[in-house]
């Protein structure tokens, strides 16, 4: 408790006892987690485990059913009053998550705008930035993700990897304090995954706070400070990459990693290959 | 009695006045109808069902009853509700309300056509719902709904003829009176049909050009 008093150790994201139900289906069943400044947290788990739902709850793209989510100390989406909670206005939601950036699996660029306009429009509309200033910032962000030369291209003229980098530039332009990535490489052709992961690595090394839902175990192992394994709506394992990938004995986790390993191994050296 | 086009040239003044009035009613009704339709669709999109419910009733009533009856109710029934309108005002209002219901359904379909992920992305950037409608949804859906909007606009040009029953002196009414005094129905009605057909061609051509303009970003998709 003592460390919570100093502002630097206050978590950027603080999730307490969060449940999410869709009708009678319980997708999240009491999630507690904290993400501190400059930490990279990778969230792994089988599909349907609730990991994307958790990230979407943290962004308030889904309303969580129970519990509390604090962003830099402020309760997200609700106000607590005499024992109950009340949904706050959209404007209030926007204010609390103002410093949260989100990168989508399907990029979700606006197809009728060039890459530059995709990055510049939010700056104009929600930050009230003047046209020239927004364009300048947008160009700088596109250069940061290696796409300065494609600023005038429309999304349909860009590869999936390039589109996702525009998506990252668009989120970065808002100067977020934390970036949430929802399976950012899952919709990409395998040869395009690397360029997106490289941008994310660079971000992490600059000290950006990140939460990444991913199936890229290599990325998680190399970049994450914390890896969380979500299974059936609970955090079944959590710790450093070494702890989660090597030491944790949770049978579901071992099975998940084993499946992943088998799916991705295609050459096992001469001994393995020799066996029929 | 032979086919005599002199009937038209002899009465060119009345016919021109009627045509000008028809175009005025048509344009006013369409513009107002588009505004009503867009507002209804936006309110249905952005508010809860209790606010949307009366609008749903409005759309259902306008689509479910004949335009002729609606006009009668507005013009002849209006005074019973303290609504004493001139034939022209009642006619334009009727046309706008009638068209607005259909336009709102077209806009509604258009809003649904934009993938929700794009709206989520905009919301995450702190862009308001109304600004999303304006900057994300409308520009994209316009390409898709333009043919339907043009179609409804053409239908409204022909519905202006119904205003003759509430004594608005638009083109159909002028043609009927010329016909009934000269008995030259063939010439006058053929002329009338050609005028409405011309309206169709004008709207279609305009819609084509507009489609190319607003659809520029989509053409790029094909290369």
From TrEMBL, chain A:
Entry's PROSITE patterns? ABC_TRANSPORTER_1 (PS00211), ABC_TRANSPORTER_2 (PS50893)
- Give membrane topology per the record: Peripheral membrane protein
Give the record's keywords alphabetically: ATP-binding, Cell membrane, Membrane, Nucleotide-binding, Transport
In its keyword annotation, does this UniProt entry include Cell membrane?
yes
Matches recorded under InterPro entries = AAA+_ATPase, ABC_ATPase_HisP-typ, ABC_transporter-like_ATP-bd, ABC_transporter-like_CS, MetN_ABC_transporter-like, P-loop_NTPase
Ranges annotated as spanning the membrane = none
Recorded protein name is: Polar amino acid transport system ATP-binding protein
TrEMBL record, chain B:
ABC transmembrane type-1 domain segment(s)? 19-202
User: Which parts pass through the membrane?
Assistant: 20-43, 55-76, 88-111, 132-150, 189-210
| Gene Ontology biological-process annotations | amino acid transport
For membrane topology, the record states: Multi-pass membrane protein
User: Does Metal-binding count among this protein's keywords?
Assistant: no
Which Pfam families does this chain map to? Answer: BPD_transp_1 (PF00528)
Keyword terms of this UniProt record: Amino-acid transport, Cell membrane, Membrane, Transmembrane, Transmembrane helix, Transport
Q: Where does the record place a coiled coil? A: none
Q: What is its main location?
A: membrane
User: Which top-level group of life is the source organism from?
Assistant: Bacteria
Query: Which SUPFAM superfamilies does UniProt cross-reference here?
Result: MetI-like
What are the recorded GO MF terms, alphabetically?
A: transmembrane transporter activity
One Gene Ontology cellular component term attached to this UniProt record is:
ATP-binding cassette (ABC) transporter complex
Q: Where in the cell is it found?
A: Cell inner membrane; Cell membrane
Q: Which family does it belong to?
A: Belongs to the binding-protein-dependent transport system permease family. HisMQ subfamily.
NCBIfam families assigned to the protein according to its UniProt record, in alphabetical order: HEQRo_perm_3TM (TIGR01726)
Q: What is this protein called?
A: Polar amino acid transport system permease protein
Give the species this sequence originates from.
Ancylobacter tetraedralis
């Amino acid at each position: 408790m003592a460390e919570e008093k100093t502002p630097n150790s206050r978590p950027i994201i603080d999730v307490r006892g969060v449940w999410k139900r869709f009708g009678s289906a319980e997708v999240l069943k009491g999630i507690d987690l904290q993400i501190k400044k400059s930490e990279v947290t990778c969230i792994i788990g089988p599909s349907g485990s609730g990991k994307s739902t958790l990230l979407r709850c943290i962004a308030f793209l889904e309303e969580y059913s129970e519990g509390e989510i604090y962003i830099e100390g402020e309760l997200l989406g609700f106000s607590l009053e005499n024992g109950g909670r009340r949904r706050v206005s959209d404007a209030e939601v926007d204010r609390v998550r103002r410093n949260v950036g989100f990168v989508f699996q399907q990029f979700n660029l606006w197809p009728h705008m060039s890459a530059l306009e995709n990055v510049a429009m939010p700056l104009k509309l929600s930050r009230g930035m003047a046209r020239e200033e927004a364009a300048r910032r947008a160009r700088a962000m596109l250069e940061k993700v290696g796409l300065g030369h494609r600023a005038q291209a429309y999304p349909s003229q860009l590869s999936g990897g390039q589109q996702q980098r525009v998506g990252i530039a668009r989120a970065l332009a808002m100067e977020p304090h934390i970036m949430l990535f929802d399976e950012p490489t899952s919709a990409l052709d395998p040869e395009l995954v690397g360029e997106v992961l490289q941008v994310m690595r660079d971000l992490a090394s600059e000290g950006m706070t990140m939460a990444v839902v991913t199936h890229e175990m290599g990325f998680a192992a190399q970049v994450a400070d914390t890896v969380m394994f979500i299974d059936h709506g609970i955090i079944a394992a959590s710790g450093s990459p070494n702890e989660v990938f090597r030491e944790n004995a949770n049978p579901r986790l071992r099975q998940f990693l084993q499946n992943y390993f088998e799916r991705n191994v295609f050459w096992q050296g001469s001994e393995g290959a020799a066996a029929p | 009695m032979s086919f005599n086009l002199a009937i038209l040239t002899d009465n060119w003044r009345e016919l021109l006045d009627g045509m000008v009035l028809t175009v005025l009613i048509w344009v006013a009704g369409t513009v107002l109808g588009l505004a009503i339709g867009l507002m209804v669709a936006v309110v249905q999109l952005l508010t809860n069902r209790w606010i949307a419910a009366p609008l749903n009733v409005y759309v259902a009533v306008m689509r479910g009853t004949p335009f002729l009856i609606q006009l009668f109710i507005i013009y002849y029934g209006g005074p019973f509700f303290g609504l004493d309108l001139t034939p022209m005002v009642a006619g334009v209002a009727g046309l706008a309300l009638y068209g607005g219901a259909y336009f709102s359904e077209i806009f509604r379909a258009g809003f649904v056509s934009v993938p929700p992920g794009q709206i989520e992305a905009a919301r995450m950037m702190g862009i308001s719902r109304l600004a999303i409608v304006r900057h994300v949804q409308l520009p994209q859906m316009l390409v898709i709904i333009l043919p339907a909007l043009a179609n409804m606009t053409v239908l409204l040009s022909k519905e202006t003829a119904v205003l003759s029953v509430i004594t608005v002196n638009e083109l159909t009414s002028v043609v009927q009176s010329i016909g009934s005094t000269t008995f030259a129905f063939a010439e006058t009605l053929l002329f009338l049909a050609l005028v409405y057909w011309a309206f169709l061609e004008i709207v279609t051509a305009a819609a084509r050009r507009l489609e190319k303009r607003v659809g520029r970003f989509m053409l790029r998709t094909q290369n």
